[in-house]
Amino acid sequence: MRIVCGRYVTGRDPALLAQDLEAIDDTAGSWDGPRWNVAPTTSVPVLASPRGERRIRMMRWGLVPQWADPAAGSVLFNARVETLLEKASFASAARRRRALVPMEAWYEWAGEGRDARPYAVRRPDAATFTVAGLWEYRRDPDAPGAPPLVSLAIVTTAASGALREIHPRMPLVVAPDHRAAWLDCSTGDVPADVPAAADSAARALAPYRVSRRVGSIRHDDPSLLEPLGTGDDGEAHEAGDQLTLL
């Protein structure tokens, strides 16, 4: 099955995100500009609240649990909200290290193989929105002086409305009035009202067809978000361009 939200768009400067999300910009110049085709393993700006203080920091997309060896391939891009506390890979982060991932759109594929068609999912006004995430850190026991690996997984839920016609899952969209509850890890519980409100939050988003160029990470420019023209199917994607979960 394909990764949910296997590509997305992050275009806002972390300094501006920090203003909008009432956070501190902690990226220290490590942001290298807008990305129009973010793929897993990319470093992206994320809002977290360690010790109750909101901070924007860069994290690598692909969660590596503290006990896992990154070299063994234990990298997790998505986490199902229904089973967060049941999975050893996610339980600790779900209780103690929840995050919000700012984005302007995500891409999703409908269909399989050569018949697959890419869609962009975004707000009609192109504004930034946030989806739920989990973050983790891991120190390399063989390099105790090295900085920890800070990594991220995007939380998914059942798709709603028109999004169900594209994929049965979607990122868990967190509306502004539920952001504080998702970030608050003081009780160790996952707030049930945030997933329950995902359907309503997702109604502000609309899918539309885009070019198959989005299937290749070689393409990373604003034209990827342009609606597909009549009779235009874009550039054919190459085998292996769509990420899959095995």
Automatic annotation (TrEMBL):
Signal peptide range: none
Pfam families hit by this protein: SRAP
Coiled coil stretches, renumbered: none
Enzyme Commission number(s): 3.4.-.-
Disordered: annotated span: 219-246
GO biological process: protein-DNA covalent cross-linking repair; proteolysis
SUPFAM superfamilies: BB1717-like (SSF143081)
InterPro entries: SRAP, SRAP-like
Domain of life: Bacteria
UniProt keyword list: Covalent protein-DNA linkage, DNA damage, DNA-binding, Hydrolase, Lyase, Protease
A single MF term (Gene Ontology): single-stranded DNA binding
Enzyme class: hydrolase
Family from the record: Belongs to the SOS response-associated peptidase family.
Name this polypeptide is given: Abasic site processing protein
